[in-house]
Amino acid sequence: MRLPPECARWCPVSKSFPIEALGAFPPPGMALPNHFTFSATDDQIRYLASTLDEPNQRLFALTVASGAVEVLAVAPNGGTQEASLSPEEELRRQRERMLTVGITGYSVHEASGRIL
Fold it and tell me: Which of 10, 28, 33, 76 suits a disulfide with 47, CB 3.0-4.6 Å?
């Protein structure tokens, strides 16, 4: 497929796509932070994310003023793992399209700001 020259700068085309990338999970470019919450003073943003070297989601905190990121929580024993799920839980996760492992959710107590 040939693109007009003006398109080349904003829509790069790769001539090859490695077959291994098709089976990668999460798919390339799809491991995005999710489940954002703000601290009571709005100085911190908390979110769930995985990294390239660690596919299990962890709870991170970004300090807005400095841009520093720290890990707040890591699931013990890797957290939720597909192999250890009951059939009911596996079906629930399929209905929700939930494919993540590790920490899959959290709540924040409004009055105290404590992470649950």
Answer: 33
